[in-house]
Design goal:
Number of strands: 6
Radius of gyration: 30 Å
Shape: elongated
CATH class of the largest domain: Mainly Alpha
Largest sheet: 3 strands, mixed
Distance between the termini: 61 Å
Bound molecules: iron/sulfur cluster
CATH architecture of the largest domain: Orthogonal Bundle
Strand order of the largest sheet: 1-5-4
Amino acid sequence: MPDVSALRQALLDWYDAGARVLPWRAPPGSAERTGPYRVWLSEVMLQQTTVAHAAPYFLRFTERWPTVNDLAAAEDADVMAAWAGLGYYARARNLLACARAVANEHGGVFPDTETGLLSLPGVGAYTAAAVAAIAFDQPANVVDGNVERVVSRLFAVETPLPAARPELRQLAGTLVTDARPGDWAQGLMDLGATVCRPKAPLCLLCPVAFACVGYRSGAPERFPLKAKKAERPHRQGIAYVLRDAGGRVAVVRRPDKGLLGGMAGLPTSEWRTAAPAFDPPVAADWREAGAVEHVFTHFALTLRVVEATGAGEFDWRPASEARAALPTVFKKALDRALA
Ligand code: SF4
């Protein structure tokens, strides 16, 4: 268990000395806080993009609509147009709905508690906590993916995500106190963004390495652990690549129901766990052409490919036309037979 007070002091000192300068941010320790409108706007924008991408949007928005009342009075189309390039337009609509709720139901003043903020349209747990901490300096537990990562490393949490979420939130909460909660939240965000990075944490530059159990373990990037996806079942099949004397390829239409239903295909066995019996569509001199692998959403397939020259009742197509019509798994099989 890290020494919480030493850890907090080290992170706040680091933040005081080198906080990122951001257009929505008041300098660390400053008596002047960033108002809730600007914190809220920046947090909504940052939910879907990077700081570098969001910054010019933030500046344009706050120049054009300097207060929440100005934004509430804006035309929908103007806000949507200004949002273009930030993606997720539902968020822009929520942004307007929230601004109008603040303007019309709260007299243009943001609620100053997490609960009050949560009652606003489109404001979730993370945004409510971030605005409460940064704008109102309340000891809110601000936990997003970055904070989860930092905390999982600080405490070397062995429970994998997503089951670890409540534990990570609780551990993050043990680090929050009444002292400078806004700066604490922003310091943790800066640490996650610049030092405790997802793939290669810069532990040698980290102000809290002395208290980090993950660092002491020698492999901090192992955290947060992620639950292993269930392994895909494996199936096997045989694809029959039949060509006529002119080199055209026999194509069939797959049954309407089932995988690749109604699409063009090569004659094939069923795809089962056990190796299927060799049961070609026509008698011919079948030769082995190797095998191809293909991964579907619910299973992985090894398709043995055999090829022959022959005749029969098929949809005969020139090889390039057949190839263009086939779904990927059969393209692979055809390419293998023609290689
Ligand atoms: Fe992250 Fe490394 Fe710092 Fe631990 S020591 S918090 S793993 S950067």
